[in-house]
Design a protein that fits this description.
By secondary structure, the protein is mainly α. It has helices at about 5-20, 20-30, 35-50, 60-85, 90-100, 100-110, 120-135, 145-165, 170-190, 200-225, 230-240, 240-250, 260-280, 280-290. The longest helix has 26 residues, at about 200-225.
Length: about 290
Amino acid sequence: MNHPRLAVLALLAVAAAWGSTFFLTKDLLTRMDVADYLALRFLIASLALILVHPPAIGRLSRLDRGRAVALGITYGIAQLVQTEGLRHTSASVSGFVTGMYVVFTPLLAAVILRHKIGRWAWVAVILATVGLGVLSLRGLSMGTGELLTLASAGLYALHIIGLGAWSTPQNAFGLSALQMVVITCVCGIGALPGGFAVPSSGGDWVSVFYMALVAGALALIVQTWAQAHLAPTRAAIAMTMEPVFASSFAVMFGSESVTWRMLVGGALVLSAMFLVELAPRRKFEAEVQHLAQ
């Protein structure tokens, strides 16, 4: 199997892991503060990565270390914003809105590189906007949770662009480990004002360890390796299954039920996501390769 195809399959596994965390996190946040939960989750993930291969960070070049710090700060802030948004909306809606990063990724790549945005990209934006409205609008205004989650999607898009430009098979592990340390620091700073609390039950600890080791450390290593073999737009579309998994897990194992808004809005958002990949893929992949130079 060639590397690009294996990378796509790897990212689908990452999407499944991430999608499984929405209903778990939603439940956990009824008993833990957002920043406390994230700081603990990423601290465990950081320690795991460092213990697995201690020399990895030290072998990074100074340039790669700077890039890892920038990526970690971006991802850490995105996690704080997204998780705070999840407190104010359902796991299903949060999953779908987070998936908007697949639309933002080619648009931001085009803006950063000063390329003209094609007509298919605008069609995708319109589709996604309408879908988001069906999912999230209450009257004439969006809720706080949806707005925060949308902001996090933009930050995730920037992270995807940077990771695609800077990751290589050789630096993947070290880049992942240092990113995780920086993410822990960002979330730890967010946890300082109100003090720090840990889970009070064994079940909550199991959830935290699952999200730290499987959906955190392992997922970031896999994503970093996979993006060394894929352009960011193609990577983003492979991860569009995340909101699908999020809704599926929320309905099957959470307390949510299927609604017409979820079906119609989700279908529109997913249509926009796939349109971004299917229509202008060659054009945007060429632009992203230029970013990496």
